[in-house]
Design goal:
- The chain is an all-alpha fold.
- The chain has seven helices and no strands.
- It is globular.
Length: about 140
């Protein structure tokens, strides 16, 4: 935030986009859990980096150690985080470009996520289906 205070010409969207990937990850995780009637704080294995490791890296490096797979996943995810950061560095004072860049990154995130969850390119993620939490399922089972 000191950047905005010291450099009035820099758009507030520039620091937002520098942190674009983590922000998108959190927003998509909250939305995913909300659609599934889960608490936003509940853990799951449906983060993009988890899917990249299980669905992409495991296929690319079938005989590699877990350490090698984690390293490969990290390299892929760093490149995903680099895209919005590069947009912010390229156009720090152009708010419309930064907002457009954020929207494009969100659409790209959504497309890649859908590809990894449904094994096809689309924008309706498989995790959109409603899942009954275990506690609620147990209570409903007791009633019947």
């Amino acid at each position: 935030m000191l950047v905005l205070h010291r450099h009035a010409e820099v758009s507030a969207w520039a620091p937002m986009l520098v942190c674009g990937f983590p922000v998108l990850e959190v927003l998509f995780s909250i939305a995913r859990r909300h659609r599934r009637n889960l608490s936003p704080g509940d853990p799951d294995r449906l983060h993009l980096h988890s899917l990249v490791k299980r669905r992409l890296v495991r296929r690319l490096l079938p005989k590699a150690s877990n350490l090698a797979r984690n390293s490969a996943t990290g390299a892929i995810m760093w490149s995903a985080a680099l895209i919005p950061a590069l947009i912010a560095v390229q156009w720090p004072a152009k708010t419309y470009m930064l907002v457009l860049g954020f929207v494009v990154c969100a659409l790209l995130y959504s497309a890649v996520y859908a590809r990894l969850t449904q094994f096809r390119w689309c924008f309706s993620a498989a995790t959109k289906r409603t899942v009954i939490p275990v506690k609620q399922w147990a209570l409903e089972k007791e009633k019947s």
